[in-house]
Design a protein that fits this description.
With about 325 residues, the chain is of the alpha/beta class. Helices cover about 25% and strands about 20% of the residues. The chain is built from 10 helices and 13 strands.
């Protein structure tokens, strides 16, 4: 879940659709020339892209402030191999410039992914109130609005099956990609798990299927960009299949889950372990499975060390930071 504090600021098989877990491990959902290469690639249009899969899954960091708040970008680049940030151009006042993103990528040594809120729309985003010609802004697209997000008064749940909302989100993804990031970190996709027996983001079968299908559209649009899904790790996604009969996990390069060990969430731990058994290998690289826990501050070394030990023991990539409503500071842990 994105921080409320952002209001103050203006990540084998030729046919993976028919294969089992072993087939998913053998090949990505789309053609990929990146397997076995740790550096960036040149795409057909000359743009530099990183390709499917993460060459290194740890250490990683999640940070939602500005470049100025991040501090020493060179230090961040030398410390972390995966960097999740918010690259929204924000109407000309971005948190990070393309040059700063390039610094963090460190010549292709690191992967930088950008936050992309799919399940809900935040009112401080420019696309809440305005959109390019031919598209509907979130506020104007009332048919896609599913109600307020409990606890987050600046957000409204959005129907992932709505064609106009999908078109807007593809445009947002285009804008993020233009900053030079290596891919996307999808938030609030757990909407597809909600069902209709709730007032906090009800999502019927068409909404849920539309969410899975949208990720296939996103993958088709960005075949060589990284896609990481936060939370939403239940059977709905792990066993999900798109309308084109593509196994949903094959569309992703990784997953992340919040509050797995602090506090302990046995259900989340079991879900991540189930994803790990799929043996996915996007671009011929291990599937990124990350945990993010909140330990109140970057000085709470004891709590952070416990989180890191438990996450690593399960074969995951851990990060611990201050709070879900924070993440405006980089925690440099000595372990």
């Amino acid at each position: 879940m994105r921080a409320l504090l952002l209001l103050a600021l203006c990540a084998g098989c030729d046919d993976p659709a028919t294969g089992g877990a072993a087939d998913l491990a053998a090949a990505p959902a789309t053609g990929d020339a990146s397997a076995g290469s740790d550096g960036p690639l040149a795409s057909g249009d000359g743009a530099v892209v990183s390709g499917r899969g993460f060459p290194a899954s740890a250490p990683w960091v999640s940070f939602y402030g500005t470049a100025q708040q991040m501090g020493d970008l060179t230090k961040v680049a030398s410390t972390f191999r995966v960097i999740n940030l918010d690259a929204d151009p924000a109407g000309g006042s971005p948190n990070f410039t393309p040059e700063q993103i390039s610094t963090l990528q460190d010549g292709g040594h690191n992967r930088v992914i950008s936050y992309l809120n799919l399940g809900s729309c935040e009112m401080f985003r420019t696309y809440w109130s305005s959109a390019p010609v031919g598209l509907l802004s979130c506020s104007a697209n009332t048919k896609a609005q599913l109600g307020p997000y409990d606890g987050y008064p600046d957000e409204v749940w959005m129907n992932l099956g709505d064609a106009d909302y999908q078109a807007l989100m593809l445009d947002v993804a285009d804008r993020l990609a233009a900053t030079g990031v290596d891919g996307f970190f999808l938030d609030n996709f757990e909407l597809v798990e909600h069902g209709t027996n709730t007032t906090n983001g009800p999502c019927d079968a068409a909404c849920a299927q539309g969410g899975l299908d949208f990720i296939e559209r996103l993958r088709a649009r960005f075949p060589d960009r990284l896609i990481v899904m936060q939370n939403a790790t239940s059977d709905v996604t792990r066993l999900g299949v798109t309308s084109a009969n593509t196994k949903f996990p094959s569309l992703l390069d990784g997953i992340s889950h919040e509050e797995v060990y602090a506090p302990a969430d046995v259900g989340a731990q079991q879900e991540l372990a189930a994803w790990k058994t799929l043996g996915l290998q996007p671009g011929g690289r291990p599937f990124f499975i990350a945990t993010e826990d909140y330990v109140t501050s970057c000085t709470n070394t004891t709590a952070a060390m416990t989180v890191y030990s438990q996450s690593r023991a399960a074969g995951f990539s851990p990060y611990a930071t201050d709070a879900s409503g924070g993440q405006m500071v980089v925690c440099y842990w000595p372990f």
